[in-house]
Amino acid sequence: MSTHTQFSAEDFFAQQPPPKDLDKRLEAVQRFVERNVNEGRRVVLITSGGTTVPLEHNVVRFLDNFSAGTRGAASAEHFLGSGRYAVIFLHRQHSLQPFSRHYSHSTNPFLDLLDVVEADGGVLGKGKAPAEHLPLPDGHLFPPIPSMQSPPSSPPLAYTPLPPLNADEPPNTDHGLTIQIRPPHLAPMLSLLRSYKVVKSLGILHSIPYTTVSEYLWYLRGISRVMGQTKDRQGQALGRRGMYYLAAAVSDFFIPYTKMSEHKIQSGKGSLVIEMDQVPKVLKTMVDEWSNEGFIVSFKLETDPSILIPKARTALERYGHQIVIGNLLDTRKHEVVFVQKDGEEWLRIPHHDGPDGKEIEEDIIARLMELHEAWTSKGGV
Ligand code: PAZ
């Protein structure tokens, strides 16, 4: 692979088509920011997860990176839990989400935490073998699995329907079954569910998915501008009360729209040589033009410890924002370094593997909130 042109941010947006629903999404962001700033909250934009680089317009193949979105999703929970911030969560589609992340993907298989309890108190699969109801009359082991989008009109359950206890009762549509959370899992799930419901009812989390690096940059620019320009009822801009927490792992290279193959790249001509251009560095423009003095935190990931701090420092000097948080691939869950103009500060937590261990994002967000507070008081907002 060889690298090629250096695009300016302006060239990039002139050449790369915007996401289809950009305007609608940005209008919704505007309403979200306005409402929250009028309710006295600060607003943080969190970017989370990796970006893809498609190789074809009709995309069959793409380049990706490792990020699962753990840092972004965990951080969102801590900002929200503080009660002081509303969160715009710009995330890679299907990456980890605040709250649901505790039970999604492979971390905590949700279905294994639940029991099906029948009307007579028996637990399906425990003592009460599901096999005693099988096979179904048509020979299948279980009926078609209903889609969550269109629930079936009659419940396709694989056991004998129980009659209602008395004739006045409404039809027993769930066959007298309950789903029960296994006792050790109840307390954490309840606490999580309550937190999630509080956040939903207050309307303080607004999520937007992206997939490609191009979509990511369009949204980043649009949301930053909206945050930068939004004013409260007193006519005061969000300004320094806005924070930008850029934890997404963004590709450094991409294939411009005009150079991309229309259809699936065909084999048969020997090796494939891909030429990629450099993704523009938009942080400087974000500082100078979009964010209106918002507090900007970028992340720097490296694998070679000897270059982590020098690279973070170079970024800070080049773009002129407030903080670079440096982390190494292997240790990113246990230690990070805050690099600011006047020095470096390491945050560390003990290594842990258990489910009850503390996450480093708790300390990262606590410290950032202090630094943000100092930044807003300097600006007098
Ligand atoms: O998403 P994740 O929790 O698996 O990883 C987080 C991270 C390492 C992507 C993030 O902390 C980070 O460093 N983002 C910036 C990466 C970069 O240098 O482009």
Automatic annotation (TrEMBL):
<protein>
    <submittedName>
        <fullName>BY PROTMAP: gi|472588583|gb|EMS26055.1| phosphopantothenate-cysteine ligase [Rhodosporidium toruloides NP11] gi|647396372|emb|CDR38498.1| RHTO0S03e10176g1_1 [Rhodosporidium toruloides]</fullName>
    </submittedName>
</protein>
<dbReference type="InterPro" id="IPR007085">
    <property type="entry name" value="DNA/pantothenate-metab_flavo_C"/>
</dbReference>
<dbReference type="InterPro" id="IPR035929">
    <property type="entry name" value="CoaB-like_sf"/>
</dbReference>
<dbReference type="GO" id="GO:0015937">
    <property type="term" value="P:coenzyme A biosynthetic process"/>
</dbReference>
<feature type="domain" description="DNA/pantothenate metabolism flavoprotein C-terminal">
    <location>
        <begin position="243"/>
        <end position="339"/>
    </location>
</feature>
<keyword id="KW-0436">Ligase</keyword>
<comment type="similarity">
    <text>Belongs to the PPC synthetase family.</text>
</comment>
<dbReference type="GO" id="GO:0016874">
    <property type="term" value="F:ligase activity"/>
</dbReference>
<dbReference type="Pfam" id="PF04127">
    <property type="entry name" value="DFP"/>
</dbReference>
